[in-house]
Amino acid sequence: MPTLSINGAQIYYEDSAPNQDNLPQDQQKPVLLFAHGLLWGTHLYDKQVEHFKPNYRCIAFDFRGQGKSEVTKSGYDMDSLAEDAIALLEALEISKCHLVGLSMGGYVAQRVALKRPDLLHSLILLDTGAEAENPEKKADYKKMLRAIHWLGIKRISKKVMPIMFGETFLNDKSRKQEYKTWLEHLRQNNKKGAMRATAGVIERDGVLSRLPEINLPILIVVGDEDKPTPYEEAQKMHFAIKGSKLAVIKQAGHSTPVEQPEQLNQVMSTFLKLVNTQSN
């Protein structure tokens, strides 16, 4: 199981082309780094890795406290997680990548772009926002934290699913097995790790006012059924970042890579081709 010791934590990652450093520079694939959303892990991007790995070196990692990474006592604020992502790139000796971040991963990705734009070819922000947590939602998430504390993840997992997924996915009987698979992924979360990660997300500062500082090709994607970060949140980022692209994924909630992988892969492919053309 590949892990790296980063900022006091054992961070798990998956690399589709771990030996490509041995190849001549002109034969090396560009890197796609995937940062998952709250309570998930590398598995969130399985369909994207499968699609892109013929042409890209795909690296997905688990944030501390989640997936297969170590549960640490601290380091769950968005800036610390951004430092973890930066340290991962440096440890793998990756000079530049396309950074993909969903929800929490998107909050982190924006901070990486503000701290170390030299490490990025482009930024792909999925189902995320740039402001501090809405006070009403924050109160709801704090209730969820108390429920996790007293009841455990398993007892509340079915109530979390409608936050993570849109109505189309949840009501599609042909995807019942997928629903069960993702429910089980939720239940696998470490209780302490989940609570610390959730607290880090809901206590984050906003960075919307700083987004105009980012001078990179940026794709912003949102599902039309996304409840936690709806279209309005994506639009605010789009207006704040000059030259950014905004795409809406039909019949998708807060987990577009899972709910509508083909749509998302097509949108990402179009964007990446454009970025690669402009950089050549």
TrEMBL record:
Keywords: Hydrolase
AB hydrolase-1 domain residues: 30-259
Superkingdom in the source lineage: Bacteria
EC number(s) given by UniProt: 3.1.1.24
Gene3D superfamilies given in the database record: alpha/beta hydrolase
GO molecular function: 3-oxoadipate enol-lactonase activity
Cited InterPro entries: AB_hydrolase_1 (IPR000073), AB_hydrolase_fold (IPR029058), AB_hydrolase_sf (IPR050266), Epox_hydrolase-like (IPR000639)
Keyword Hydrolase belongs to the record: yes
One Pfam short name: Abhydrolase_1
Entry annotated with the keyword Hydrolase: yes
Protein name: 3-oxoadipate enol-lactonase 2
Species of the source: Psychrobacter pasteurii
Phylogenetic lineage: Bacteria, Pseudomonadati, Pseudomonadota, Gammaproteobacteria, Moraxellales
The encoding gene: catD
